[in-house]
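Sanity check. The docking grid for L-captopril depends on where the pocket ends up, so I'm generating a full predicted complex first rather than guessing from homology. Inputs follow.
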Amino acid sequence: MTSIHLRRLLGAGAALSVLAFAASCSQPEAVGSLSTGETETAAPQSGPATVNEAQAFIEKVEKFYREFGEYSARIAWVNATYINYDTDWLNTQVSAEGTEMGVKFANEAKRFNDLELPADMRRKIELIKLGLNLPAPERPGAAKELSEINTRMSSAYATGKIELDGAQVPRVDLEEMMGTVRDPQRLQEIWTKWREVPVAERADGGTMKSDYAAMVKVANEGAVELGFDDVGTMWRARYDLPPAEFAAETDRLWGQVKPLYDELHCHVRAKLNDKYGDDIVPLDQPIRADLLGNMWAQSWLNIYDLVAPGDADPGYDLTALLKDNGYDAVKMVKTGEAFFSSLGFEPLPDTFWERSQITKPEGREAACHASAWNLDGAEDIRIKMCTKVNADDFQTVHHELGHNYYQRAYKDQSPIFWGGANGGFHEAIGDMVALSITPEYLKQIGLLDETPDASKDVGLLMSVALEKIAFQPFGLLMDKWRWQVFSGELTPETYNDGWWALRTQYQGIRPPVERSADYFDPGGKYHIPNNVSYTRYFIANILQFQFHKAACEMADWEGPLHRCSVYGSKEVGEKFNAMLEMGQSEPWPEALEAFTGSAEMDGSAVVAYFEPLMDYLKEQNEGRQCGW
Ligand code: X8Z
Ligand code: ZN
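Predicted complex below; grid placement will be based on this.
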C-alpha cells in the first residue's frame, strides 16, 4: 500500500494504489468537502518544544487521519472498483494531497525528537515520521507528480489487456489458467503475454517501467528529505528494529526454513521431470517458472496432483469439494465469517455484504487483486475480490477477513495506532485461521463425509508446503529486489537482470524463455506497480505457524499440529482478540508475547509443523542431485 492511508486506515490488506498517503494528512483547505476546523499545519514554533505542544500536534494529526482518511478511502474505493479516467483523476488528486500533508507532519514531528515524552506519545511521534509509504519531496508539484505516476502504474496493472487466440481474456482467468493448463507451450504463451503489459508503450511513449524508474527517483528524494538513506531503508524501519538489523532478522528466519525449501524444490523438480522430461525440466537446472502452477511461481499448490505422494493423498480436493457442494463466492465468504464467529467475533455488519466487491463486476474495469478495507475507521469494513470457486480463493477469503477483523478490533485505538503490530501480523491473522481448515473441520461444516486416515497425512502436509514453503523465497526476494532498486544498486538497465538473479538464487527458478534487459518482469506482480511492501508476507508465513501452535496449545490440542483446528474455541478467540485490539500501539514483540508467550519471531514452529513431511522428502530425495 502506498500510503498511510493504506497502512493505517485500510490496514495491510488494502493495498491500493495510488493514494499516496494516508489517513491523516489532510489539508482541510485543500479538501473542500472536509471540514476539520483545522487551518494550516502549525508552523514550527520557536523555543524548545514542550509536551503540551507535542500533545496538540498529535491530536491534530489524529483528527486528520480520521477525517481525511475516510474521505480518501472512499475515493480510493470507488477508483479501485470502478476504474476510469475520472476516478483515476480523483484518486491522483486526493493521494497528492495526502502525501503533501504526510510530509508536512513528518517534518513537523522532528521538532519533538529530543523531547522526553511518555512512551505512547513517543511512539506516535515516531509513527508519524514513518507514516508515508512513498514520501514526496517538499518542492512544489512533486507530490502531484508522484501521485500521477502511481495512479498510472496501478491502473496499467489492473486494466492491461491480454489477448489469447484472438480474444481478450480477463486477467483473473489467466491467473487461473496457470494453475490448470499443463501444456508447456501454452503455459509459456500465457506467462510471456502477461509480462508484455509492464513494457507496453502508451501514446505518450511512457511505460510502466519508465514510470517505475521515475517513481523511485521522486520517492527517494522524499525519503532523503525526511532523513532516510532511501525508501527501502524507510520501509525496513517499520519493524521496531534498526533497518539493518531487520534485514539480518529476515535472513535468519529464511535460514530456518531454507532446508525444507531445498528438499521441496528437489522433489518437485524430480516429479516435474517425470511429467515433462529432461528437455523441459533438466535435473541440474533451476525449474522453469511457468510449470509451477502459478503466474509468479509463488504458490505451487495447483500442481499438487503432479507431485502428490503415491501412497498418501490429502483425502480430498478442496476445489472439487467446494464446487460439488454448490459453493459460490458469497457462500465461501459466509463460511469464513462463520469460523471467526465460532471464535467469538461479532458477525460482519450488514454493510459488509451490501458494499463489498465479492465477485468481478461486469461491464467496467476494477482492480481484482484481493484487498480488505476499513472505510471509516469503524464498522464500514469490506473486501474487494474477484472470487473464483477454488481452494486458492477459499484461502484468500480467510486471509482478507483476517484483515477486516483486525481492523475492527483496533478501531478504538488512536488512528496513529491503526495497523498491524507489524506488517507481518496483519497478513498472518486470516492465514492462521485458515491453518485450522483441517479434514475434521471440513467434516464439521459438512464438506467432507469422512476424515481421511492419518497415515496419509504426508499428502496433507505436502499441500500446505506447496503453498507456504514454496512461497518463502519469493516472499523474501520481492523486497530484496526493491531494496536494491531504492539504494541505486540496480538501475533501469539492470532491473530485469537483477530480478532474475534473485529469482534464480532464492527460488531456484528460471524464465521459460530468455528475458532481455528491456523487460520489466517485476512489474507483472501487483505489489510492484502498487508499491505494497512484501516482506510482510514472508514474516506472516513464519508468524502464522507460531500463532497456530500457541492457539493449539491454548485449546489443549494433543496430536500433530497439522490436524489441529481451533474452530469453536472461545478461549483462543478471546486471547486472539486481545492481541488484535492492540493494533500497533506497542512494539510487536509485546503483541507476540501476549499471544504466544514468546517475544521472538521464530521459524521453529514451521519446522515442527512440517517435520513428517521433511522426513518423507529426505527419503524421496535420497540419491537425487539437489540444488541448482
Ligand atoms: O497480496 C496478497 C493478499 C492481499 S494483502 C491477497 N497476498 C500476497 C500475494 O497475493 O502475492 C497474500 C499472499 C501473498
Ligand atoms: Zn493481505
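Relevant for the grid: The pocket of L-captopril (ligand 1) is lined by residues 13, 15, 298, 370-371, 396, 399, 537 (CB under 6 Å).
Also worth noting: The CA atoms of residues 296 and 584 lie 31 Å apart.
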